Amino acid sequence: MQEAPGYCLPCDKKVLVRRAGMSERANLFLTLATVGIWLWPWILMTIVTRWRCSECGGRAACIEANEFGYLKLALLLFYLLPLFIWSIYELGRRLLEQ
Ligand SMILES: [Zn+2]
Q: pTM of the predicted model, to two decimals?
């Protein structure tokens, strides 16, 4: 279960919002541990699960600005790191060839 600051319309106030699933830190760890495979179920869960008000249980909005912060970071690492390593390798190979 994830918890974050949010806003509930029926309650008309700032509340604690909850949604099913693991914390982003746990998801990020799993993504790294599974070499990026976990990224896809994570993205799917992020889309499917909705934030709910902790007081009335109705749909509520999460007001955390960087809700996808860790997700973006994980995506960036997953796609840019191999590219970065490959370019270093390629650079080294060309320098050795000269
Ligand atoms: Zn509410």
A: 0.55
